[in-house]
Amino acid sequence: MLSFLKSLVRAPATTPAGNTVARTAPPALVNATGAQPFDLAASLTDACGFPVVDWDAAQQWVEALPDESAQADAWSACELAWLEHMREALGPGYSVGSKGSVIVLSTLPGHVADATLAYVERTLRHIMRVLDGVAFTPDWGHDILIVFDDEDAYYRYISHYYPDAGEFASSSGMYINFGCGHFVTVKADLHTIEPIIAHELTHSCLAHLPIPAWLNEGLAVNTEHRLSPPAYKPPNAQMQHARHQKFWGVEEIQEFWSGKSFLRNDEGNELSYDLARILVAQFAKDWERFKQFTLGADAADGAASAAQEHLGIDLGATVCALLELAPNAAYAPQPQTWQDAPERGGFRLAGGARLTP
After folding, report:
1. Whole-angstrom Cα distance, residue 77 to residue 33?
2. Would you kindly state where each structural domain of the chain is located, as residue ranges?
3. Which pTM was predicted?
4. What would the pLDDT profile of 79-91 be if each residue is shown by its tens digit?
């Protein structure tokens, strides 16, 4: 699906009508006391009509500054300057709003933008409490949300973080852990955006951990449901269980452990998120043991070693029991069979983006 959408949205961005208010040009340079300015404009590259900063170059400039306080200020200044360039590319009607460490770039009306900022800030505090000892927020930078007006702009932007070839599941939000970590979504009423924010903020708070996709997504889905309970009626438990039993064979479960199944464009995508939710919900009942498991989990083996060490379980045997299958060693993570080496987070796309359905 995404490959088709990308073909439709490669054209340059158009400027929305209706807002002719003059605006200050985005800054070309970022200044810091005692240092040469960083030429942010020269570091920009075009990403399907949107500006992307050479964040490696920005980080090198920041790290050359004399003390941590100056570095933190300079990094924040780079983020803000980039967002001004993004605002310019998106066109009239977009504005940058902030509250504490949270920044939202959108066309949301003032009162809705304020409510969104407050929700992000409040949700971040809740995530830190719910995922105590696991979640982490960096000392530098902001929590950035970009709300695109329409799917055309959204897919055009995120297509930069996908391989040129292949078809991928559609999405409603994404956390992009690339230089300046930020998350993106499409404009809707706040009630619709809230679960996406909770989900993507959870990813941002887990970005420091090299955990596999199934654990990352299981944590995100369960945290999302806890902080923003779904309004829809959940699927019939027996029917959903039957779907899982029918779908998960040896090949498919290896895709689950490696993270590949989360990028499928068929029912395997949905069932991957649901299986991850079920496993994490079961394992997290003993939070202290689960916390140690999460901190020790590694995408390289699908968290198999950490599960043995901290939970005393075999992941393959656990899934077999869940699916009511006879024990089968082939259902345990088999990294040697995975064609592509897992990335941090299990299924990182180009530049670190993670997909949320």
Report:
1. 12
2. 237-347
3. 0.80
4. 999 999 999 999 9
